Amino acid sequence: MPATLGDRMISQMSARGFILLQTAGRLADEMGLPAYAVGGFVRDLLMSKTSADIDVVVEGDGIAFAKLVGRELDGTVQAHHAFGTATITLPDELTLDVATARSETYAQPAALPQVVSGSIMQDLFRRDFTVNAMAIRLNARRFGELVDLFGGQRDVQARRLRTLHAKSFLDDPTRIFRAVRLEARLGFRMDGETLRHCVEAGRQDLPGHLSGQRLCNELRLILLEAQPEKALARLGVLKLLRFVHPKLIWTSGMARRFEMVRAAVDRCRKMETGGPHNLWLVYFMALVEGLTPNAVQDMMQRLALPARDVGQVMAGHGRAATILRGLAKRPAPKPSAIYRALDGLADETVCLLIARASSEAVRKRLLDYRSQYRDVKLSVTGADLKALGLTPGPAYKKILTRLLDARLDGVVRSKADELKLVAKLARL
Description:
7-stranded mixed sheet, alpha+beta
């Protein structure tokens, strides 16, 4: 057993994570199952990086094994019987993904695989790249031993991405996007043969056979990277962005746009309100900024974006320039005017506007909306208006709108002030 791996596991993992893997190995021994930690966890360990994700594969019934681990550690097990997988969530929120070792076959290019249980060798061979096709034994007698059947450790040392066989991209064209994403994240490069297969897969239009949902998922993962522009630039060089949309072309200006988005998101994260929930959507809106509305619609239809996301993207795409011009006017717009310009926009759209703002003054108005204006509430309600003898109807909305503007602009500061203003408005 390579002693260095055991040492690495102790030094690089949290004590909790290390104990978890030891426990998994002990319970696998009790069931008579070979068990392994696999995938990115092993790669990151060899790169002296900490990995938050831990995946375990057993040669046998993965779900039954997961249930045993869950009982032992008082965790919650969510089983996926169709795939022979399960996720264990422990009381401290640490998670462990468990799978039955399996092999895969593809009936046709870009089709979802047909899965049958198999050995660890078959399970590793079905994976995308050699650096992700390694395992570490967890059973007590050989705990920490590296299983490297395809030269993954050498490729990690050479900072090289290499597919396991010539038909890898043919079987699963999503691996093209995964290769580019890992290149950017890890600082690796595809070896010559892998790169040739990647380019040839593009020439054969294989990514075009992917469903919109699968293609969208790969794009989303790229946009969630720390610096998504690196992978997008690489896709541009390889002429693969056309599969997202034929008119999507990467430029240096787009790279600058992404840097501005990142700066805007960082500022938002430092506020009490935090950053946007769907970070990838902010980058997506930046990505499509230069396309026509029709092209954006076509692209979202190809990617099968949910209606909610479509609405957000189109709202930002269609109104951004007008809103920013309004916020840049002199004299500076009142808080109520800022609120009215931005009310109803998703936080992702507001973050994009912060990135696009032409001056720090406009940027501050947008940040003030997120931190101060957006959640302002009135003390007076419709019930209060009714108690004052006002007849319910359209006048209610007008009065409440005027009241909110006054509250935002600091004209009224208490419920008593609001009621005085109501009385005044009611006489008009």
